Amino acid sequence: MAKTRAQVAELDPVWARILSEAEDAVRHEPLLGGLVHSSVLHHPTIERALAYRVSLKLASGEMSEQILREICDEAYGSDPDLALAARADIVAVYDRDPACHRFLQPLLFFKGFQAVQCHRISHWLWEQGRTDLAYLFQMRCSEVFGVDIHPAAKIGRGIMIDHAHSIVIGETAVVGDNVSMLHSVTLGGTGKEEEDRHPKIGDGVLIGAGAKVLGNIRIGNCSRIAAGSVVLEEVPPCKTVAGVPARIVGEAGCPQPAINMDHLLRGS
What range(s) does the Serine acetyltransferase N-terminal domain occupy (predicted)? Predict the structure, then answer.
């Protein structure tokens, strides 16, 4: 039996809000009706909508949308944390991006959100030992969104990647919860070593546009990395670093820089 809107709102408030916003979007712009219905209103759950959206974006002559949809449906059916993380990501984008005015927007229009969800599927495949399929998802995500995240990289919840162009995250990188980063960020290595070689980003970290964090170093919780910085050494929690190479230039400026999204270096 189909659930009523009130039941959906009680069980899944994020999805209920997306449905409401989708109906409102169709009323205000009927030309978007086909897109909104196929991407949102046609689906009974957010998991099904996410599977549809990811498979539609990544489909190509090399692998059809139907096969990709089956893979995504399997992933969401097997691991409820995938959709829980997606919900947290939607809320994060809405809370932190001043250009985001509805929960619907990340799902339909924001490639940063969409790329992170593609990575979550590729990481699930990697953990299942299906590495070639995981690499296919990585390749298509890079081609479609300009976001290249190795399937083995571990990404937390509540992630906001604003603009999301030219993002690179390496194989052994770890990104904590509630992290915000802007375009052209690299979490990379420093050479050809094959062991643990990529950064570990703590919870609540804000990474500015064009910043490069290189090597197996720890970036402490609730720290800030200024735009254009090259970070080669560990950063303590709640500090701001800037420069090439980056140095500590002050405190983080607030308890939650990734949520506050303040990039200014006052008093530095």
Answer: 14-118
